[in-house]
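Hey, can you fold this?
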Amino acid sequence: HLPFIQDFGPYQVFTVSAGTCGVIWDTSMGTLKLIKESGWHKYPKEFKVGESIPILVQASFIKRMQFKTKDGIAMEIDGTLAWRVDDIPLVAQQTGTVDDLRSAILFRAKAELSRLCKGFTREELLPMINKREDSTEAKKNTDSSSDAVDIDADDAEEEEEEEGEEERKQQDQTRTSNLDKLYAYIQDTCIEKLQTASNDADYGVKIISFSIAGFRLLDSSIIKDLAEIAKSRLKARAIKIQGEAKIAEAESKRLIRFK
């Protein structure tokens, strides 16, 4: 936006806000002058006062940007883009305003981010993390299927449950590590592509960072289906534990008979 200007005879007085660089044009010479000191400034009316250019880091927010994954799942993403003006004279000579520049950068960021996200599946962008199954309930079901369970069988079942829990933790850690790497790739690639596009368009800006705040599913029915899949996996795991516990119990009783 243009700074506030007051006329005083042959002069004009205007203010340059902190965090911005003032821009004035010498119409007689056709030259550009930059004013980096904030505060009030007085110049003859022959000078044309232009829009002040922000020199601090700017934040542009991507909110609920929708896209479809590689496997056709509707999702949305939130993120934050940080950038700053790197070439003040170039920005000052553009025909649009700073708000136009901000909109153009955000538009290109969304386009590049959408292109990147569409190259991955829902499972890659938003994997299901295992939740600890109700092993207590599984154990109750196992106990009720027989009159007595040998101590050795209990130990075998508990050992199997511990191994299963450790396996799930390792799987979740692997998923989390892979997800961090994927997010880092998307973020770094988005910065690189957006910087190239900005240079090609003579935006005069430096892309500093982009961070992903998170992904979300749009279709509630998909969320329900994923919950059902998770329940099925937990149920299958519980049945497996029960079966292995029964085998351990039978083996323990067999060994007792031979003692």
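Oh, and this one too while you're at it.
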Amino acid sequence: AVSWALASCSVWLADDVSPPAALAPPDVPEAGPWDCVGKLEAVHQDRTRQVALELRVTDLKSAALEGIAVNYCQTLDPGCTPLADELLTDADGHVTLEVPYGLHGSLILEGPDDILPTLVYLEPPPTAKSNPITIPLLDQADVALMSALAQREVDPDTGILLLSSADCALQYNPLTPGVHYELATPGPDTVGFYLVNQLPDPNQTRTGPNGVGGYVNVPPGLAAVTATLPELDDLELGHSNFLVRAGWLTYGSISPYNQ
């Protein structure tokens, strides 16, 4: 199965994750992988239409998580206020969530105390019924492992931000190597890393073949991130703001639609 980096902070532990290919807006240019950068029109939200998102929530070993509360919020809402009635995953970890067409927003997932509450940014905005999207959640043991691999103790008063990116065809397989992420306002203990050979490496400066990077110990609040392509004279792929909460995990993704 294909790893979806947006929902795969620990690709080294979880690789049975489906990409959100059906979320892609139609009529994406088919030229070179970065030819559309700076040329795409934003997807506009339409509250009169609904899109069904089929989700499967698991732990990092792909075991289904039952009873996880799922909701969504608007990206521009700094408090990420839930906008729907809360739904719970079933015994197989499945739940279907109806959201507005072209939603610029995030999924909210909360479970038992040992599970990190999680925000999942929807990028590109959903415009069609999705293929089932698997979202692995972290528990405290996973955080301890991440801390060891990232070579920095995780501060519970900060958040974890995991990032991926997509090219002009919005292809997540193969994922996008060679992308550099820049966090505008890191804290004193913030550490960035990129996954290389399925392990987080804080000494790397760009994504490996899996296209995943991230930060631990991110100060709570809005985290501004810019994605650039060093091999193309630091061409800006896109930029976005991601809400980070203390003790939470945020999955973010940047595509050419984030110009």
